[in-house]
Design goal:
- Residues 163-424 form the Peptidase M24 domain.
- Belongs to the peptidase M24B family. Bacterial-type prolidase subfamily.
- The chain is α+β, with helices and mostly antiparallel strands.
- The chain has helices spanning 5-27, 55-60, 113-118, 144-154, 159-184, 189-200, 263-280, 289-306, 314-319, 322-326, 385-392, 402-408, 430-438, and strands spanning 31-35, 70-73, 80-84, 106-110, 125-128, 212-215, 237-246, 249-258, 374-377, 380-382, 413-415, 418-421, 428-429.
- The chain contains 13 helices and 13 strands.
- It has a five-stranded mixed sheet. Strands 6-7-8 form a three-stranded antiparallel sheet.
- Helix 1 packs antiparallel against helix 4 (144-154), helix 5 packs across helix 13 (430-438) and helix 7 runs antiparallel to helix 8.
- It is globular.
């Protein structure tokens, strides 16, 4: 890490305490109880799914593998960590708390989940925890007034959070470089995935989401997670959407590559690269994210025209739904403790919902950008058989060069994604900065 995290963490906790004070006052609660949660048991089995700690717990602590533990906050008092360190020879037991963050907490270590629950304060309690799996002796009420307030303010990252996200980006870009090298060396999707994991030094369970590793036409499947074990007979294209984690914070990065000699597809990637960078440059205070998404459709219409795929002007291509057939998902989403982070549609700290633009059901954010927000910018251009067949049945099909479309189908598609911070000045592109360090 490039900074000493202790002072940043102290500022972070001070900010969280202020937010919690206000949220609890709004709801009339005395205490905020946040469960790390426990693993979910597999059906008809004696094994658990991989544990993922409650993001609210990870907001207060850089602990990602302490099931059964609790954060307890009472206004006017130092936050408490009830730390479960079981007597267990079947599993790795969490190490005793240490590091830059421990001075900000009163820490009590117990051996069982039941002991932890017994130490929770009584009174009016806002309990933030998943309803499943349930917690014996505690009801997770997740009061809406408290959760809405905390989610709204979680949109504004503290300097501590941004530093962890920068490190997550550095880990992810290092692994992306390894994945590209594996692709150039002729590896299978599975082989590329292994190269990625090795370079990131993270297991699949530790990554913030399941990697998308696509060769050739597989790039047309937006959430392709199959991993062919054998390389294709002919390598044409490679799309990888993969992130990394740092102390519970995520990076989310996508790149698309053309195999050597596939010049027309490379030219299409180059056009998408320029468009994507233009969108990233607009991550500025006051910019409506929904408007930026619609703007992206108009720009991508020009890309389609430039490469001879359509003959429509941009406005007609957007209004008729042509661009949505090639770009069917949203421009991006908030990111932080969760890859698709919370409050992307909230009206204000009390809740509410800002609707998506008509005809764009998969956009994951509609708020106006403000300093401290971090969003992804990930335009895509795909050749998806199902959507193209629907498009072919419309009158506007006459304005599409289907021979060109068919020539690009074997490449699957293109997606380019960066994580970008909205600031009081020019945006900070976490992804591009991390790649530049590796150059």
């Amino acid at each position: 890490m490039s900074q000493d995290l202790a002072p940043l963490f102290a500022q972070h906790i001070a900010t969280l305490r202020q937010r919690a004070d206000q949220a609890l006052a709004l709801g009339g609660f005395d205490h905020l109880l946040i469960a790390a949660s426990t693993p979910l048991r597999k059906f008809l089995d004696d094994q658990d799914y991989s544990f993922v700690a409650n993001p609210h717990f990870r907001h207060w602590l850089p602990l990602t593998d302490t099931p059964g533990s609790w954060v307890v906050y009472t206004p006017g008092n130092k936050p408490k960590l009830i730390f479960v360190q079981p007597r267990d020879y079947w599993h790795v037991v969490p190490a005793a708390p240490s590091g830059y963050w421990v001075d900000q907490f009163d820490i009590t270590t117990v051996r069982t989940h039941a002991e932890a629950v017994a130490l929770l304060p009584k009174g009016q309690r806002a309990v933030i925890a998943p309803e499943c799996p349930s917690i014996d002796g505690v009801e997770a009420n997740n009061p809406e007034v408290v959760v809405n307030y905390l989610h709204w303010h979680r949109s504004y990252k503290t300097p501590y959070e941004l530093e962890l996200m920068r490190e997550a980006s550095r880990i992810g870009t290092r692994a992306h470089r390894a994945a590209e090298s594996a692709f150039r060396a002729g590896e299978s999707e599975f082989g590329i995935q292994l190269a990625y994991l090795a370079a990131a030094s993270q297991t699949e369970a530790e990554l913030p989401y399941s990697n998308i590793v696509c060769l050739n036409e597989h790039g047309a499947v937006l959430h392709y997670t199959h991993f062919d074990r054998t390389p294709p007979k002919q390598s044409r294209s490679f799309l990888i959407d993969a992130g990394a984690s740092k102390s519970g914070y995520a990076s989310d990065i996508t790149r698309t590559y053309a195999a050597a000699g596939h010049l027309e597809f490379q030219a299409l990637i180059d056009s998408m690269e320029r468009a994507q960078q233009g969108f990233a440059a607009k991550v500025k205070a006051g910019q409506s994210y929904a408007d930026l998404h619609i703007h992206a459709h108009h720009v991508l219409a020009e890309v389609l025209r430039e490469h001879g795929l359509i003959r429509l002007n941009a406005e007609s291509a957007v209004q008729s739904g042509v661009t949505s057939a090639f770009f069917p998902h949203g421009l991006g989403h908030p990111i932080g403790l969760q890859v698709h982070d919370v409050a992307g549609f909230q009206v204000n700290e009390a809740g509410g919902f800002i609707p998506r633009p008509q005809g764009h059901p998969y956009l994951r954010m509609t708020r106006v950008l403000e300093p401290g927000m971090v969003v992804t910018i990930e335009p895509g251009l795909y050749f998806i058989d199902m959507l193209l067949e629907e498009l072919r049945a419309k009158p506007v099909a006459n304005d599409i060069d289907w021979n060109k479309v068919d020539a690009f189908r074997p490449y699957g598609g293109i997606r380019i994604e960066d994580d970008v911070v909205c600031t009081n000045d020019e945006p900070e592109n976490l992804t591009r900065n991390a790649f530049a360090v590796l150059s």
